Amino acid sequence: MSDQRIILPGPLLLVGCGKMGGALLRGWLSRGVHGNQVFVVDPAPRDLEDVQARGVTLATALDQLPAALQPGIVLLAIKPQFMDEALPAYRRFVKPGTIFLSIAAGKTVAYLKDKLGADAAVVRSMPNTPAAVGRGMTVILKDPGIPAAALDLCGQLLSAVGQVGWIDEEDQINAVTAVSGGGPAYVFLLIECLAEAARAAGLPADLAMQLARETVTGSGELAHQSTEPATKLREAVMSPKGTTIEALAVLMAPNGLQQLMTKAIAAATERGRQIAAGK
Predict the structure, then answer these.
(1) Which of 41, 113, 250, 264 is least surrounded, with the fewest CB atoms within 10 Å of its CB?
(2) Nearest to 14 by CA among 72, 90, 74
């Protein structure tokens, strides 16, 4: 997560302030954005007293905002299933210099332009849930039709909750969604599986889960802090003729973890393409 101070060229409108929107909002405020520059629309806001105290304007409906408001950035943090109904009302903000930054899964640039208007300047991105603790990973589509300064600002806004990467082709966002968007679920499943394997090996269930959680989270932090590639970190745990190498012989077999993971990511990527096509 970057510590770079964010300087907004104008007001920012956050549409939707659930867990992801709230994490972003608090990240911006911690990076120097003034609360009076931020306007939030959420029909059922919760636990936002701290941001209101810092001057953020909170509305439950668009018509509660100042009539003259013209945001430079409209960040769309609405759940995808609500976009059909919600987006047309925001057409009023489609003007030169205004960027619509979407963090919604499965909603293409073409879809967003259809709802907002063909002239809307849309930037699509895909964050993941560790953003809630400042350790997210967000990938942004680098659209050549969007000014470089606007893309840079989008990167700054999203880096407030973790790391940022870039892609050049929109179809790649389906693989991004499969890997990092869904990735936390795969890691949580790993914890479940490791705990169950420990229980099957004779350990008490509570200790098995503690071992699994702490091993996975600790290893993640080690990978985060280390400059070594994952292969080197793995090899450092392996001793010749030891116990770990026996387990890895199973996990790294031709029908092992890599084959399963490749198949899983391919399935999720294809489903992303289907969702984008409205299937």
Answers:
(1) 250
(2) 74
